[in-house]
């Protein structure tokens, strides 16, 4: 990576950090959701920009790139997971188009003002709505790379993407379990599983929603490590205090749903640290563990969008089975020895590749080794479509900056 690119990444991170409160406020005004989620997401995006500035990535003058996030709070997806590797890899002068949902009018206006007033990245343009986003892409031959966080609606545009010889890198919704299999660094696995589950208050489809632990481990010891590491996940009412990992939730129906799911399991599971507190910023829900949760229970099947993590113990030969018989994907976090990882990886891929042929590319679940975090952290799962292969599912994880052309 050139020195100019490193400076640019750090400068952008500094500017976003300086204007963090204004960006978060604009986002909150648009979507009327939890203040904490937005601040946390933006902080992760800023941290990732700085992390990329320290990496030694071979620079390649990639084509212009277009980035779209369909989520109401796209800060991490836009700045951390996509813009960071694009800026690390590309010629600074190449055009970059950033598409945002139509609802984010204040957010878009604030970002546009910040970029223009600081005279940073004049080649970046913000647009609202996916229809306008794709119209601009198809009209511009320089925009070759399309990076999308989305859903099944992408099917409406795939034919045109092929017709216009564009490259598509797509991230679908949802996730599978964090798996602590044989041979894992247990403490590291548990620590990162908790961080992945409770970041953004658990209020994103990309947060880990469930955990499977190999039954060969001593149950009491595993539970003790979970409880010890849980003490490092601080909850507080101030979303701008970096010490607070979990902050208040303003969407009350989520609290009601979670209360119902937890009440159904009271007396049947070990429930750790579950409590709620009304505050001036919303309802503060403590990060919660539910041990020995039945995989047929509603809590296991549900996306709670709250900081609650169900944990089950399963036999080694049944872990892939549990994954294959769920409706969620697109990735797993697998903590294990290389040999164990391969056996789980192969068992799950074979089933999901069959799904790919029988259903749709969007049903392909890929598997990553180790800590994946949100959307796989630096290791991303999804599918890639380009003019030569048309649709090419990834063989496990990929690094975004390795596939940008």
Give a verbal description of the structure.
This protein is an alpha/beta fold. It folds into two domains: 3-172 and 382-403, Aldehyde Dehydrogenase, Chain A, domain 1 (3-Layer(aba) Sandwich); 178-374, Aldehyde Dehydrogenase, Chain A, domain 2. The chain is 41% helix and 18% strand. The strands form four sheets. Strands 3-2-1-4-5-16-17 form a seven-stranded mixed sheet, sandwiched between helices. It has a seven-stranded mixed sheet with strand order 8-11-12-7-6-13-14, with helices on both faces. Helix 5 links the parallel strand 2 and strand 3 (124-128). The radius of gyration is 21 Å and the shape is globular.
Layout of SSEs?
Blueprint (H helix, E strand, L loop, with lengths): L2 H16 L1 H12 L3 H20 L9 E6 L5 H15 L6 E5 L4 H13 L6 E5 L1 H9 L4 E7 L5 H9 L3 E5 L6 E3 L5 H13 L12 E4 L4 H12 L21 H14 L4 E3 L3 E4 L2 E4 L2 E4 L6 H4 L6 E7 L4 H6 L8 E3 L2 H21 L9 E2 L9 E2 L2 E3 L6 E2 L4 E2 H4 L2
Parallel strand pairs: 1-2, 1-4, 2-3, 4-5, 6-7, 6-13, 7-12, 11-12, 13-14
Antiparallel strand pairs: 5-16, 8-11, 9-10, 15-18, 16-17
The name of the CATH topology of the largest domain is Aldehyde Dehydrogenase, Chain A, domain 2
Give the count of helical stretches: 14
Radius of gyration of CA atoms, rounded to a whole number: 21 Å
CATH class of the largest domain: Alpha Beta
Could you report the average pLDDT, rounded to the nearest whole number? 77
């Amino acid at each position: 990576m050139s020195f100019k690119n490193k400076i640019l990444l750090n400068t952008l991170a500094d500017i976003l950090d300086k204007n963090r409160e204004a960006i978060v406020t604009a986002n909150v005004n648009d979507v009327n959701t939890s203040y904490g989620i937005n601040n946390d997401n933006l902080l992760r995006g800023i941290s990732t920009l700085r992390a990329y500035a320290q990496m030694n990535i071979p620079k390649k003058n990639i084509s212009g790139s277009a980035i779209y996030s369909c989520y109401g709070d796209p800060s991490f997806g836009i700045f951390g997971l996509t813009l960071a590797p694009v800026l690390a890899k590309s010629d600074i002068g190449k055009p970059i188009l950033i598409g945002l949902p139509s609802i984010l009018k204040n957010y878009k206006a604030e970002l546009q003002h910040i970029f223009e007033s600081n005279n940073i990245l004049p080649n970046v343009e913000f647009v609202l709505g996916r229809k306008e986003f794709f119209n601009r892409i198809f009209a511009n031959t320089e925009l070759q790379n399309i990076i999308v966080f989305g859903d099944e609606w992408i099917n409406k545009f795939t034919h045109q993407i092929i017709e216009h010889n564009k490259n598509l890198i797509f991230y679908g919704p949802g996730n599978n379990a964090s798996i602590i299999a044989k041979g894992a660094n247990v403490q590291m696995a548990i620590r990162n599983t908790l961080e992945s589950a409770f970041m953004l208050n658990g209020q994103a489809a990309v947060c880990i929603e469930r955990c499977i632990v190999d039954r060969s481990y001593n149950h009491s010891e595993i539970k003790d490590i979970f409880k010890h590491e849980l003490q490092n996940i601080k909850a507080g009412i101030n979303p701008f205090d970096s010490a607070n990992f979990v902050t208040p939730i303003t969407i009350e129906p989520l609290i009601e749903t979670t209360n119902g799911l937890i009440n159904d399991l009271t007396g049947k599971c070990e429930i750790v640290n579950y409590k709620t507190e009304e505050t001036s910023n919303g309802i503060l829900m403590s990060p919660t563990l539910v041990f020995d949760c039945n995989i047929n229970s509603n809590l296991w099947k549900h996306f709670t969008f709250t900081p609650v993590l169900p944990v089950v113990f399963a036999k080694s030969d049944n872990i892939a089975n549990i994954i294959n018989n769920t409706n969620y994907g697109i990735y797993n976090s697998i903590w294990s020895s290389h040999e164990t990882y391969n056996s789980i990886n192969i068992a799950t891929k074979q089933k999901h590749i069959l799904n790919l042929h029988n259903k749709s590319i969007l049903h392909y679940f890929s598997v990553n080794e180790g800590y994946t975090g949100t959307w796989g952290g630096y290791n991303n799962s999804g599918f890639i479509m380009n003019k030569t292969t048309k649709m090419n599912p990834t063989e496990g994880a990929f690094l975004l900056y390795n596939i940008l052309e």
